[in-house]
Amino acid sequence: MLIIVKTLKIGFVGAGNMATAIIRGMIGKGGYQPESIFAYDLNPLQLEKIGELGVQAMASAVEIVKQCDVVFLAVKPQNYEEVLTGIRQAVAPEKIFVTIAAGISTEYIMNTLGTPCPVVRAMPNTPLLLGKGATALCKASNVTDQVFHMVLDIFAASGDVAVLTEDKMNTVIAVNGSSPAYIYLFAKAVVDWAAAQNIENKTALELICKTLEGSAEMLRSSGNTPDELIKMVSSPGGTTLKAMEALKKHGFYEGLWDAMDQCTKRAEELGR
């Protein structure tokens, strides 16, 4: 099946924040025309909001499937069965589906639709809203390289992409999907502590944000491991070592491992 990417009609069932972020990337860096993108959402206000991007609003999920070549399923995992059974009548084998929900397997989508459609599974994160997302992707065995790279390019327009096998997709949620929340909690603790020491919130937030940005760049570009970078900051007998001792005492490292284990466990519970 030969696909001329930019002439495809792309549809979104669900028009929330993540769908909006993907669409912004498609229209911006991705080079897609707004008139080739269609969306449906139960919430008319959400649909009106996304319509401001020039996207075509549709009356139902079924209309999205009928109209579009590629359908992004951007709804909550708990709603998948209802959505898939609702659109089943309109599905044809050549329709391409992309799922961004935690725990929803490519096999479940094909089985519920009753058709072996090509399915790509994605786990993006909320920084896609700023074009700085991190998305993990995998594909069903019947997805051609051409189709897969088309989907990969769509997500790459809003950040970085890593390709995994499907057996890692529930686990990776703890690494990129949910991890922004861990970082925000860390920043909140720093800012709240600073406020208790009479340091203005705005000042503390600016300092910790820049520190997070710089630290991320050090991890990416310095060539040093996390352990080596920790050692670089931790002078013998100095302040950082005292801080690290306190974090160790309170089980910071182990607590984060437990959090990630619980995240993965919940993904498995949601899994189908």
Key features?
eight-stranded mixed beta sheet, 272 residues, Rossmann fold, alpha/beta
Question: Can you give a write-up of this model?
Answer:
Pathway: Amino-acid biosynthesis; L-proline biosynthesis; L-proline from L-glutamate 5-semialdehyde: step 1/1. It is found in: Cytoplasm. One of its GO terms (molecular function) is pyrroline-5-carboxylate reductase activity. This is Pyrroline-5-carboxylate reductase. With 272 residues, the chain is α/β, with parallel strands linked by helices. The protein folds into two domains: 5-169, 3-Layer(aba) Sandwich (Rossmann fold); 179-270, ProC C-terminal domain-like fold, CATH 1.10.3730. Helices cover 48% and strands 13% of the residues. The chain is built from eleven helices and eight strands. It has helices at residues 17-27, 44-51, 61-67, 80-87, 106-113, 145-156, 179-196, 201-221, 226-233, 239-249, 252-270, and strands at 10-13, 37-40, 56-57, 70-73, 96-99, 119-123, 133-139, 159-163. Strands 3-2-1-4-5-6-7-8 form an eight-stranded mixed β-sheet, with helices on both faces. The radius of gyration is 21 Å and the shape is elongated. The model has no long low-confidence stretch (mean pLDDT 94).
Provide a compact summary of the structure.
Pfam families: F420_oxidored (PF03807), P5CR_dimer (PF14748). This protein is α/β, with parallel strands linked by helices and about 270 residues long.
